[in-house]
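Dear colleague,

Following up on Tuesday's group meeting, I ran the structure prediction for the two-component complex that the binding team flagged. I've pasted the input sequences exactly as they went in, so you can double-check that nothing got truncated or mislabelled along the way. The structure tokens for the whole assembly follow below. Feel free to forward this to whoever is handling the docking comparison.

Inputs:
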Amino acid sequence: MNAPLRQSPPAPVIAIVGATGAVGIALLESLERRQFRVGELRLLASARSAGRRVPFRHALVPVEELTENSFDGVDIAFFSAGAGISREYAPLAVAAGAQVIDNSSAFRMSDDVPLVVPEANGASLQDAPRIIANPNCIAAILTTALAPIHQRWSITRLNLSTYQAASGGGAAMMEELRAGTSASLAGEDFTPKVLPHSYAFNIFSHNSDIDPETGYNGEELKVIAETRRILSQPALPISVTCIRVPILRAHGIALSVRFDAHITAEQIRGALQDAPGIRVVDDWAANHFPMPSEASGEEDVLVGRIREDLGDPSGRTITMFIVGDQLLKGAAQNAVQIAEVLIKTHTLRESTASA
Amino acid sequence: MNAPLRQSPPAPVIAIVGATGAVGIALLESLERRQFRVGELRLLASARSAGRRVPFRHALVPVEELTENSFDGVDIAFFSAGAGISREYAPLAVAAGAQVIDNSSAFRMSDDVPLVVPEANGASLQDAPRIIANPNCIAAILTTALAPIHQRWSITRLNLSTYQAASGGGAAMMEELRAGTSASLAGEDFTPKVLPHSYAFNIFSHNSDIDPETGYNGEELKVIAETRRILSQPALPISVTCIRVPILRAHGIALSVRFDAHITAEQIRGALQDAPGIRVVDDWAANHFPMPSEASGEEDVLVGRIREDLGDPSGRTITMFIVGDQLLKGAAQNAVQIAEVLIKTHTLRESTASA
């Protein structure tokens, strides 16, 4: 009770690159709701968005144009403006002394950049890397749900199909879903701009390029490569089909997990029940399971339909259904959680955090 | 050219039980577009719908109340008013001399009732059964796509996740999706009546009861049992998760098929390319694959994303994405196709067809 007060380090200077995009806005929401200490907030975007004012903690923060000099004095720079911007500006931010947490795919497969979901592999932050990669949204949500399972049992195969929201395609795709659906209900013509086809009451294979070698699309190959990296299982066989569905901001995943030995649904449910970042929603009697309507705006990943897979007579496979907010755990919140770990473990480099 | 004219048998008398439901209306559409010869059309429904007039081939046909005497003189009776009505009235229709094609689940697992998808197991109609069961929508669409594969290679396992439309829940669920979405876009309150939660921009585990033994829902257990029966593989391991998505009348299926030996995507594509009832939509360069917007109102089942499964290093698994119209191939059209086979093979019992 009478212990001497320990002096808090100064609150870090935070920069957000891509502050006006869907993930940028979710980053501000996550910093706010998680009561992240922010010394100064620097919102960076293209010249087109500069001058706009964005609300944060009862203030309106002006958006500045991103330039080479944007990172002077910055402690933590969140990047969410696409891989091209990250490749160009992240090294400049590092040179200016900032710690970079990058939401793009630019560095996710670089050996010297950890790819981090704190619940799954937060320990990889101990080496105080200058750049940390934030995973693809499906990989982040999937590995959050798998973390407590992976820590106890040996996973030998994953088979998943995704139900992905418009938010993964950015604010413009969300607006196209709303506007196209509104036109469809009114019986009016609508010309899509973001997609080559209608999104209203429609589902479609993920709109990333198909790899001509494998026939898998870019999203599916990211899910495979990043999930393997986060789980430290570089050869884990993963079957994945990525489909977009007409929902706004939460992704669903139908998942089968195979193990190296017999396992029960009860064991898996027990492991998930009290795990960090997970809420089990699995009410068989009421037919109440994870839904985007309940996962949207929620920090936890919802997991349910946990059952022994009837397709594996050897009893080694468990099937489940997962839903997580694409903009929160699938992007912004995970990035903020990475920053929290850096601060909590004093990994944020002294030279900048105490500047 | 001068061959003697063979006299056509008289056009059969057709009854439709549940004529005002979503499938009943699709039955009329299918009879019309497939130019099915109809001698007389008897539309049957509950007392509530009796007296309504339904359009068929430029005429308005009055709906009659279903009674014990509704089947006098009927050659073919299509049932689509739920399992309870089928159990009660199908035996009466048979006793009156009609051939019953039942769209409900009432007789699908009865040993003496064939469960038929003409492309997959049409030969089972040769025994002239009095009642023929029309499969669950997912089982029908799935086995149509699997038929040409199953005929050439040995399938050892299926793993599928579904993207099911509102139409499977009937016209009321379709209307609830439209009305709820409209209210959501307008920012208005909406109280769902068909479902216990919102359907607008939402996905949810299929709304059939969960089996407390297995944790699988009724829809999933139907898919497993009926697919095994149609393919004549009573022990085929099948993993399935059934999810409803906010689309109106076409179901999607993300599918992995395992074989007993190495196989290539090219072999599977070749088998599907010219198969009846299937249209391959698999344009990797244009990222054009099966979508409900193109499958709705279409008789063919669309198949694409055909690729070797990266989750099976043994090279024995192929992954694909399938979309079919739930009301057509998933219900009404398949029933009409069964009737066509009966007539074409002269299996329709003489006593009635020539009455």
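The longest strand of chain B covers residues 155-164.

Cheers,
M.
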